[in-house]
Specification:
3-stranded antiparallel sheet, 11 helices
């Protein structure tokens, strides 16, 4: 996966952004950590996981609910305490950190990380959704329209955010020689957002795109199960369809 330059850049950015090394750790671990594992250590943790970890079971489809519940009741799972905090917090740093790695490639990658003051379920969470859509979430966004289309300073560009860590990422594929200009123009789009330099039409178009994305997600079993999982984890923060619209 280190040969995937986009993944590699994302991991480097996470290492720079997160002050907690475990938060920055990729879900598949690292080569150094994997080298320490043995069949004995993996099996020991497998048994520990079954005995102590929280287990959430979701079933979706045309099933007999009573039969499904009885089937899972046959599993020898003991009761366990849920103490998982899925919301991550870290102090906001005002000191920018920049790392440049040189590789012999045709296309360079520029990734920027920012700390957001909003997480899932906050009062301004839906405003964050709209802001990200206007910034770089859709094809009508400022980053796409100005950096890629108008000035041709990026082959691709977008912005995404993590609802549970307050991490906003801007990722662009660029020509290395255009790095200063691309970076400058990206920050200009951020300043434009901060100054409220967007139209009512921009807002309404973004809302429409968000609604369409939401409706498309309703056809995905994985998406619906994910929503139910969030509801189970954070019932006090969960945003149902009526709240979203």
């Amino acid at each position: 996966m280190n040969d995937d330059r986009s993944y590699f850049a994302s991991r480097k950015l996470a290492d720079l952004f997160f002050t907690n090394s475990e938060q920055a750790l990729p879900s598949i671990a690292t080569l150094d950590l994997l080298k320490e594992e043995t069949a004995t250590s993996v099996y020991a943790y497998y048994k520990e996981m079954l005995a102590t970890n929280i287990i959430d079971i979701f079933v979706m489809g045309d099933v007999d609910e009573e039969k499904v519940v009885k089937a899972f009741e046959a599993f020898p799972f003991e009761r366990r305490t849920d103490n998982a905090d899925v919301i991550y917090h870290q102090p906001i740093s005002t000191r920018p950190v920049e790392v440049i790695e040189h590789k012999d490639v045709a296309q360079s990658l520029l990734q920027l990380g920012f700390h957001l003051p909003v997480i899932y379920g906050d009062q301004n969470y839906l405003s964050l959704q709209v802001m990200n859509g206007i910034l770089g979430g859709f094809s009508h966004s400022k980053l796409f329209a100005n950096v890629r289309e108008k000035e041709s300073l990026a082959y691709s560009i977008s912005s995404t955010f993590d609802s549970f860590t307050g991490f906003l990422k801007i990722a662009a594929g660029i020509d290395a020689k255009h790095f200063p200009e691309a970076k400058k123009l990206i920050f200009e789009q951020l300043e434009s957002i901060k100054k409220g330099q967007f139209s009512v039409q921009d807002i309404e178009q973004t809302k429409t795109m968000l609604r369409n994305t939401y409706f498309i997600g309703q056809d995905s079993i994985a998406n619906n199960i994910e929503l139910e999982f969030v509801k189970a984890l954070l019932p006090e923060r969960f945003m149902d369809t009526e709240t979203f619209f």
